[in-house]
Amino acid sequence: xxxxxxxxxxxxxxxxxxxxxxxxxxxxxxxxxxxxxxxxxxxxxxxxxxxxxxxxxxxxxxxxxxxxxxxxxxxxxxxxxxxxxxxxxxxxxxxxxxxxxxxxxxxxxxxxxxxxxxxxxxxxxxxxxxxxxxxxxxxxxxxxxxxxxxxxxxxxxxxxxxxxxxxxxxxxxxxxxxxxxxxxxxxxxxxxxxxxxxxxxxxxxxxxxxxxxxxxxxxxxxxxxxxxxxxxxxxxxxxxxxxxxxxxxxxxxxxxxxxxxxxxxxxxxxxxxxxxxxxxxxxxxxxxxxxxxxxxxxxxxxxxxxxxxxxxxxxxxxxx
Length: 320
Description:
This protein is 78% helix and 0% strand. By secondary structure, the chain is mostly helical.
């Protein structure tokens, strides 16, 4: 069995997994994570059962409970991912063990992928440990096992997506603190920045159409339509979560209306938004991991240094 694991499992992932499991940090994280979710679920049930003065629950109340639990878990996971991945490679550099790791037969991309898989493994453990809390909605009904399975798949894809940027910045910067800051900044851009870009583009387009109407070039004021530009939101994990949850709550039309406010796109794209956006995020993740592997490649690093020295020499010669 041990021989099979050596061939089938990334060695870096196997080593990191053993280290993480023995670390006290994981136990503390599990306790804090599930305590927060448990308190939210308990308080929500208390409010529903006792403060409402009724022992029966409507389907709408169940949906609100499911929405609260998944939203809080989504935010907690997004907050935890950079903590597990942003220091994966820079930590090796700080401990002066990265050069030893690069002398192994493993390719730099495999090292980066192994570091990412170890971070994802910790996130998956968090998600699995929270299943009994999410199962609260099954005691009432309204949410199927398929919805929960798709939500678990979404969390894993999000961890892979955001974590890949953490590994990239960890390979690029020497300090863990700096790579952590850039990972959180990238996460904020994907979650908030993309929405701001779409909103600003909508407002600017609307102002332009109103000016054209005031100048007499248009007979009426049209609504600004970004068209396929709204597909920028496919890199936003928050929008992917909204499409998944609204579909589970039976509010797919509401999600379609929200997207339609900014751009007109084919209906089949909106219906398959979760799967399409997940595919886009997976492709981006593999591309980012490849970039991280290139940053770790010592031969490419030497070439970059030699090119930088040549540029400096040219600048000095021109100044002379």
